[in-house]
Amino acid sequence: MTDERKELYSAHISAGSRTYFFDVKVSSDGTKYLTINEARRADGDTFTRNRVMVFEEYAGNFLEALSNAMKAMN
């Protein structure tokens, strides 16, 4: 099976024992989406991974909620 998703953007941030990956892709039907992946060392060479997917139509709401969360941290 061929992976038909096109990657538009990719970046990562190292944060102590965690690394965050931000990828924007386009699905085969043209829908854009953001994936945020977290990888952290669990034991030895074992990593725990978590993923959040945000589709284009909800990106504005996601950004607003993230912005409000950031304001609450300050």
Question: How does this model look, in words?
Answer:
The protein is α+β, with helices and mostly antiparallel strands and 74 residues long. The longest helix is centred in the last third of the chain and has 15 residues, at 59-73. The termini are far apart. It has a four-stranded antiparallel β-sheet with strand order 1-2-3-4, with no helix packed on it. It is built from one helix and four strands, in the order ββββα. It has one helix spanning 59-73, and strands at residues 6-15, 18-26, 32-41, 47-55. The model has no long low-confidence stretch (mean pLDDT 92). It has a single domain (6-73), classed as Nuclear Transport Factor 2, Chain: A.
Q: Within the largest sheet, what's the order of strands?
A: 1-2-3-4
Question: H/E series, N to C?
Answer: EEEEH
Q: What is the CATH architecture assignment?
A: Roll
Low-confidence stretches: none
Structural class: alpha+beta
CATH topology: Nuclear Transport Factor 2, Chain: A
Name of the CATH first level: Alpha Beta
Radius of gyration, in Å, reads 15 Å
**Which range best describes the helical content: under 10%, 10-25%, 25-40%, 40-55%, 55-70% or over 70%?**
10-25%
Q: Please summarize the sheet with the most strands.
A: 4 strands, antiparallel
Number of DSSP strands? 4
Task: Tell me the span between the first and last alpha carbons.
Answer: 47 Å
- How would you describe the shape? flat
Total of domains: 1
Mean pLDDT: 92
